[in-house]
Amino acid sequence: MMGLKRNDHLNVCIVLISFILMIHHSSLMTSAAFFTTRSTINSRKTLTRESLISSIGSIKSSSSKEEGKKESLNTSEEPTDNVSATRRSTLAKVASLVIPTISAVELLLHAKISLAMDENDEVKKRIIIVTGCNSGIGLDAVMRFAQNHKVILACRTLEKAENAVRQVQTSLSSAGTSVNDLDLIPLECNLASLKSISTFAQGVAGLLGDTGKVDVLALNAGLARNVASKDVLRTEEGFELTIGTNHLGHFYLANLLLPLMDKKSGRIVVTASGVHDPESPGGAQGSKASLGDLSGLVEQGPFFEMVDGSKFDADKAYKDSKLCNVLFTRELQRKINQKGYEIKANCFNPGLIVGTGLFRDQNQILTKVFDIAATNLLKVGENTHWGGGCLEYLCLDKGVGEVMGGQYYTSDPGSSKYGDAAYGNQFCVAQPSKEARDDKKAKDLWRLSAQLLGMSPDMN
Question: Which of 260, 266, 281, 393 is the most exposed, having the fewest neighbouring CB atoms within 10 Å of its CB?
Fold first, then answer.
């Protein structure tokens, strides 16, 4: 570190120390993203750099104000001494000044947006449902899907869904797309409420009418509580919130929507995470994912704290929910095959993408600093458009539809550096964890999940 001034040393140390603390304190190998895109498909449309420059300001204007409020709240606490005050101030400056600059430059460097197409530029207009699409890779995916497909935005509240529609309209209109050409439908779908999910499914059925079919169901929503949390929060029906939302909510939704899906070419894509695997870099940090013998569900029923029957552990609960996602996907595909349907169900790990709504319950300044360290310094994180590209690839790529489903897609850390060429190459089918390959456990989890939800374990 020769040639650096004292303040430079301090800034570097803060970034590195914060990175170590975040790795130690929580596991952030997960999923989600923001705007811009890239995807390996048969043909593409591009947005000009000038139009993206124009859209950057409009997209970020409202969020930057909120972020400013959060930063001021986080930095206004009374420091214990001058040293901590200096460090806190410097850390806040790093987070507030560096991140917007990096984000803007990143958008300009990746200004090309590619859209999934069929051969010969003949685009079949699909009906696509995306959960958790008011931020992260869900919103990123909608931004791409919207230019050629009807998209139903399923968000926790109608307000969030409507705000997401406005963000998409603003961004794409700034890039030259007519708002009148967009077919976006905002609906409430609170995955922590079976009533909300049921109402959403009924709404979708009404929109489809007698002949319409859902082409793609992207089960992308998710939450990760602060790893230091000790209290057990619950869904409306009393399920532990993390498993109840990330697994049971999507389980219920998928089963309600399956009768409405195109049985010949439908796709179901589940956003999982590498942390489901205790042997992965992210999964090895902190608590390890394991569902044990499912005794929590067997013995405690809807009042379970953890699936394996242990005491509540926020870190483990998130990782367990991602393990449930992989097991669910594999069993779902097995049941689809038994029915003779040609729907393809797959799940994926988009990699370490920190700057998303998934980490809204974490310390925001440390999360931002960690994002810089992981993505820009250590090159082990992925950019926002990478996660969105992964989701788009699995939802629309023709090649994915021609191979067997029930697969887990992932890539090595930092694979976004390969750009569009990574999809289908570096980002490809891989083995999930040993526990995720336990077919008996997948069947048992399905049966117990259906039982908790009051559903038949047989798929419609």
Answer: 281
